[in-house]
Amino acid sequence: MTITAVPVIKNGCLMVRGKVVLTGVPGNVVISPASSGSAFIGASSTSSSSHHVFNLGVLENCKFMCLFIAKIWWMIPRVGKSASDIPLETQMLLLEAEEESALDLVDEETPGEPASTNKFYVLVLPVLDGAFRTTLQGTKSNELQFCYESGDPEVQTCQAMEGVFVNSGDNPFELLKDSIKILAKHKGTFSHLESKKTPAHLDWFGWCTWDAFYTDVSPSGIKDGLESFKEGGISPKFLIIDDGWQETVNEFQKEGEPLIEGTQFATRLTDIKENSKFKASESGGSSTNLKELIHDIKEDYGLKYVYMWHALAGYWGGVLASSDALKKYNPKLAYPVQSPGNIGNIRDVAMDSLEKYGVGVIDPQKVYDFYNDMHSYLASSGVDGVKVDVQNLLETLGAGYGGRVSITRQYHDALDKSVEKNFVDNNLICCMCHNSDSIFSSKKSATARASEDFMPNEPTFQTLHIASVSFNSLLLGEVVVPDWDMFHSNHDTAEFHGAARALGGCPVYVSDKPGKHDFKILRKLVLPDGSILRARYAGRPTRDCLFVDPVMDGKSLLKIWNLNKLTGVVGVFNCQGAGSWPMKQAPECNENSTTPPAAAVSISGRVSPLDVEFLEEIAGETWDGECAVYAFNTGSLSRVPKNRTIQVSLGVLQCEIYTVSPIKVFNENVDFAPLGLIKMYNSGGAVEDCTFEDSIRIKARGCGLFGAFSSKKPRWCKVDKKDEDFTYSSENGLLTVNLQTESSSFKEIEFVY
């Protein structure tokens, strides 16, 4: 009997690769093959509506990981074993299956043993279908349902034919990539990241003004901050001037009266130009307008890129309909209507306010003119790009505009068009945009924030942040470069956050207040020229972490993998015991237990070269599986076969980063592997090339202590063709040479044996 990979419904069961995934599939559920072994699942109803909930069948006793919108703006992960664990607003569901046991529960893996080879993965992805958006949800009786909604009472249907996409594969990361490519081609409403132009700021260190000043940002504050970075020897090359520069009004705030709580979210934009703070000359300052400020700070502080913040609707409360400057965009006051899914999860205080006070909505037919007018003005002032925030607001404003998908797509198309016209390098950062309306309407935008904000004053949010960005990057990382947000270099968790940013494949930027910097941390992230050692892909959980809860199960470490040009990297983070997921109860403690809480003890785990997916692609055909593994914090260097592991133990909010470099044989008698700049978190990001001829030649980026593994001591070393001293340890094979600070970004290192 031939087992096909294409999902089918047979005898009331959804089958994938001959295995039962769902039982009790209702008769109104249909399946239609897509390409490359994938399929769409849909359903029909006897009546038309703008909002349907269809049963798909029963899902029980299987490991899954899902991503869902907990609060209207942001996704978080959840793991579980049955459909009752799947929340409302779930936008991705990944199941782990066994070839032999049809999604039966798998025993816990023996620590340190490689994963069994008979696993495969099933992706269930709710997508956009015409004017409708789909999400998944579970019931207490373990029924998996899909919700199918337009967001406009006038946009109705009784047919939901392509609401849910199903695909399977042996590698979960390839499965996601292949599936997003299939969907991008089939739907035509969005693009895979590989076909997009990525913004220029990603490879440079940056500073965002938000936490430093909040809305009190001013030219003098910006200059103070840039000056304090300069004095410490590390200057940002990109700057985000966040909320606080625009001309806005709170209609509900009467002069001399106290603020009515909530009305701040209904503040509206009154003009596309900067407010008085950025026009008037400040005492001691020379800038008289935004254009002169940007010219001055680029000249004085070496900034390459300056981005300005604005909301997708102009501002949080949209635009002021009575504003003379904005009337030409036909704005109308509308009152948001949230979906049942949003209301059923965590209500957001900003949305509660906007439901009461309304949003000034720009006519979708005029929104390109609005963006183009604002962006062309900003570009003429020297601005290089924009951060566009509060994007998911549009999903609540679809009534009268063809629905939530329709209005979102019109705004995104206009935004893409304006950014392409006015900013050279697709310089756009999208934010608060995790709904699938935005994800699957992203044709050109190439970077987006990956989680809720870094919250410096919330100690229980730090571990959740790292777990969220890595899991969310599984989906987001196929459509955009995930932005893991700013952090503070001078903070209790700076090492934890800095290490994560180093291997996240994301931009690295901080929101330090002027004078509040830790340059020791920053020097582990930023080269003297202001560039960073950014890894090649989005940092994502290792395969053995996909179906565990690294925040609340009390036993699992979070491992995040990535690749550089010639090395792999694995970051290990103890996210246990310092916070709890929203909407999830912590496991009850046994009163008689003598076990200390998770926060009080260290947690142990295993790290293997196999944690780095696709390592063989950079290792080459002659690689025999041996790796040099360098631990950043302990400085230990180990020789590890690819199918073996090393143990790591970490206390709460501690981390370790392992550079994994495939060992190759030079001249038949020297085992060698470059490690990179070993005083920087992502050491291997500094290795550009390594060739074996009469000698070993390495092209390296940056300066500092460069390390390599070598089974023998070289006779001599040259850097840029000049003899250079080196150190060698015969105990562990660590070979180091100091690369001096010079103007050249790249250096050629030669080892002669």
What's a quick, concise take on this entry?
It contains 13 helices and 44 strands. With 753 residues, the protein is an alpha+beta fold.
Q: SSE layout and pairings?
A:
Layout: E1 8-10, E2 13-16, E3 19-22, E4 29-33, E5 39-49, E6 51-58, E7 63-71, E8 74-80, E9 90-98, E10 119-126, E11 128-129, E12 132-138, E13 143-149, E14 157-169, H1 172-187, E15 206-208, H2 210-213, H3 219-232, E16 238-241, E17 246-249, E18 268-274, H4 290-301, E19 305-311, E20 332-334, H5 340-344, H6 349-357, E21 359-361, H7 367-380, E22 385-389, H8 404-422, E23 428-430, H9 436-439, E24 447-449, H10 462-476, E25 481-483, H11 494-503, E26 509-510, H12 519-522, E27 540-541, E28 558-563, E29 568-573, E30 603-607, H13 615-619, E31 626-631, E32 637-641, E33 646-650, E34 655-662, E35 664-666, E36 670-677, E37 687-692, E38 696-701, E39 704-710, E40 716-719, E41 722-723, E42 726-728, E43 734-739, E44 746-752
Parallel strand pairs: 15-16, 15-26, 16-19, 19-22, 22-23, 24-25
Antiparallel strand pairs: 1-2, 2-3, 4-5, 5-14, 6-13, 7-8, 7-9, 9-10, 10-14, 11-12, 12-13, 17-18, 20-21, 27-28, 28-29, 29-34, 30-33, 31-32, 31-34, 35-36, 36-39, 37-38, 38-44, 39-43, 40-41, 40-44, 42-43
Helix pairs in contact: 7-8
